[in-house]
Amino acid sequence: MKKRAKWSGILLSTVLVGSLLLSACGSQESAPAAGGQASGDGGKKDFTYAMSGVYKPFSFKENGQLTGFDVEIGQALAEKMGMNAVPITNPFETIIPGLDAKKYDAVIGSLTVTPERQKAVLFTNPYYRSGSQVFVQEGNTTIKTKEDLKGKKIGVVKASNYLDWAKKLTDEDKITQYDSDITALLDLPTGRLDAVITDQVVGLRFIKEGGGKVIDVGEPLSFDEQAIAVRLGDQEAVERINKALDEIVKDGTYEKISQKWFGRNILQKQ
Question: Cis peptide before 57, with omega less than 30 degrees from 0?
Fold first, then answer.
């Protein structure tokens, strides 16, 4: 009996230790740290990059997997840098604070380059170009230009440059903020909104995919450049990413990814 009890104790201890080790491994996988940590992929360092994950077709979940233009651009850049791509989702309104807190190495999340953001992060060269566009429900004849938005209900994504536009064009109590541009666009036919201001490319893709009876109106409010963001002071990362970006443009990788998602090259001015 004593012998059996002794072996039972050893077995129980082994199981407990094994469980603790598995728990530790699971925690590490669910929250990868930034800063170029070595991964299991042949000893490559991780390139962790963030996006909202709710900005189709740039980043979104499909069959439980994170996919989209931003995800694939990050993967292509990581390959050129000899690193292991690790895309991470983070709410857009806290994506820059998350970068500053070193939760990830970079943001590849459709960040428009603005003077205000340039005080908070370092930007690479642009990785695509688009514009801020007004969208309304098909059949709406009251909104034809930005001047018609005064007093109208406008939907925008939280903490975006589109929110800045909405504040200029209507009363602040008429603005509804969303986690996703697509959710805002889907609200147009319901009558909850009169207009949505979002990225031109996102809205046109939404229309093309039959997302609803929505049309774009007027000229774009602005022509914007989107760039990859890294922490202030990390000029080395900027240079490394810019070099990789140049390489994927020159070898046709960028063209292939852009054509897949948009049917055109969105780095080139249209």
Answer: yes
